[in-house]
């Protein structure tokens, strides 16, 4: 089914997704984009309630039947500033870590880094943001998306998972491409998504203002720097190599 007028689309409600999704309605007729966190979008796509979702890349491992629209996604090549581990002790010494229950890709990324970089196997528990809830039940807590845009509490060190991945592999990390369910040809529907991204990239200053004025905790300048310096969107050969490395290392 590749009827553009009836595509059901889901996107994350994070600022990093706006360049991909904000202008979609201008190029794609049909139902409005559904906003939901990654842990909700995944089951919705699996149940057939969505046709396309800006979904955590780990779902490509869990669902081999899925594909993704080529050439675009939420990526970083070094520090990402929005996938962070907040820890009261060095990562090698942690025994209990709280995971943001909204996360999918970042949770798996953290497990990989503990196993391969920090040579540690802590106990994992789940919490609901804000960060304080996680640090109430564990020595460290993971945050994703805009909930990471806070100052570190006293006695807490901050570890940027995008930076650690780059140092460990030398490759970028792909957090979320546009993933399609079985029966959808991603290449056949790609054009409006490409046009929406082009307009989103051209209007990152306006999107930053939107973030600051609609519930954001930071200034427009902060969001603009984030959307231009921390996150980027083209997926090329290096990004595909990073994605392949991640999926090869990931458990289901």
Give a brief description.
By secondary structure, the protein is of the alpha/beta class.
Explain what this protein looks like in three dimensions.
The chain has 252 residues and is α/β, with parallel strands linked by helices. Helices cover 38% and strands 21% of the residues. It has eleven helices and eleven strands. The strands form two sheets. The protein has a six-stranded mixed sheet with strand order 2-1-3-10-4-11, with helices on both faces. Strands 7-6-8-5-9 form a five-stranded mixed sheet, with helices on both faces. Helix 5 (105-116) links the parallel strand 6 and strand 7 (123-127). Helix 5 (105-116) crosses helix 7 and helix 9 (204-213) crosses helix 10 (220-230). The longest helix is centred in the C-terminal third of the chain and has 13 residues, at 190-202. The radius of gyration is 18 Å and the shape is globular. The chain starts with 8 loop residues before the first strand and ends with a helix. The model has no long low-confidence stretch (mean pLDDT 94).
